[in-house]
Amino acid sequence: MFFPQFRARRIRGNESFRRMVRETTLSVNDLVYPMFSAFGSGIHKEISSMPGIYQQSIEHIVAEAKEVKALGIPAVLLFGIPETKDAVGSDAYCDTGIIQETIRAIKREVPGLTVITDVCMCEYTDHGHCGIIKDGDVDNDATLELLAREALSHVQAGADMVAPSDMMDGRVAAIREVLDEHGFDAIPIMSYAVKYASGYYGPFREAAESTPQFGDRRSYQMDPANRREALREAASDIEEGADIIMVKPGLPYLDILRDLRNEYNMPLAVYNVSGEYSMIKGAAERGWIEEERVVMETMIAFKRAGADIIITYHAKDVARWLAR
Ligand code: PBG
Ligand code: ZN
User: Which listed residue, 12, 39, 162, 209, has the most CB atoms within 10 A of its CB?
Assistant: First the structure.
């Protein structure tokens, strides 16, 4: 059917028609809000490249977590900035580590808010890599044991779900096994299954103080040029027991998100990462784009590409805009 029988504009003529034929929707239920918990007290330090996002000590984290819950956002994703870092990231799996104390505080003071933790070593190692180093590179199998200990320690402190972001091979299985052994078979794993070695993580590394002190992450994170490989990464994580699989970054990888949506019948998350946030905030501050409009269009793009869950620093704003 072509013009003049077909007139695409007939169903765009008013907002009722547009609402009726809208194919994709966004809800506050789709959102997860990332937060950075810093050791100490009285800390509330804005990340220069991420306006509105802070490194905060526990009392401030708890206050913001209350706000997140009041906005109806189901979950937060926690990152820790420990007091001290060492070669083996000891604070990551210490029962009194920064993240463990933060989990306890949120679970105690903000009941009903779901706590997801990022499981990785880079925030806790002095060299800034996502595992332990042998011969100048991250040692995969030796790191697995530490990641499993880290995940277990988060769950013992009260985490509702763990999200390994390290990109070591076999980590989902290693974490699943240790959780099950300790009776935590009901705790889900959201795997950063498809995580690219991306320049878009730049602002995050300021936030988490996790810049690698030598080299880069290309020996463990994926090459941005690879699309088919994403399906292999996802397949192996599903096989190992991932309950939710994630694509990261978001906007530059919508094709990958759609590939996974078409291929797998699994809940799918997308991480709208720090650099994506900074670009929108920076352009909006200069008056170059309309922030609300561009953010909402970005969120819909994730849903349209197939995401069920959107991890985003815009979550609080989006929740407010949706509630209006
Ligand atoms: C830790 C981790 C990173 C991000 C999430 N978990 C950084 C990295 O891999 O370098 C990035 C999140 C963001 O940029 O917002 N491995
Ligand atoms: Zn890492």
Answer: 162
Residues of the chain under the 70 pLDDT cut: none
Amino acid at 117: T
Task: Write down the pLDDT at residue 94.
Answer: 97
Residue 165 CA, ligand 1 centroid: distance in Å: 7
The reported pLDDT for the residue numbered 267 is 98
Residue nearest to atom 12 of ligand 1 (CA): 273
Contact between residue 37 and residue 57 where contact means Cβ atoms under 8 Å apart: yes
Active site residue 195: yes
Is 167 inside any structural domain? yes
Structural domain contains residue 5: no
Q: Which of 69, 85, 107, 248 is catalytic?
A: 248
How far is C-alpha 25 from the geometric centre of its chain's CA atoms? 21
| Bridge partners, residue 56, by sequence | 37, 44
Count structural domains, the chain.
Answer: 1
Q: Decide if 207 is inside a domain.
A: yes
Mutate to test the pocket of ligand 1, among 37, 54, 78, 120 (most ligand atoms within 8 A of CB): 120
Ligand 2 centroid – CA 266 distance (Å): 24
Q: How many CA atoms lie within 13 A of 76 on its CB side?
A: 30
The pLDDT assigned to 230 comes to 98
Does the Cβ of 165 fall within 6 Å of ligand 1? yes
In a domain, 318, yes or no: yes
pTM greater than the 0.90 cutoff = yes
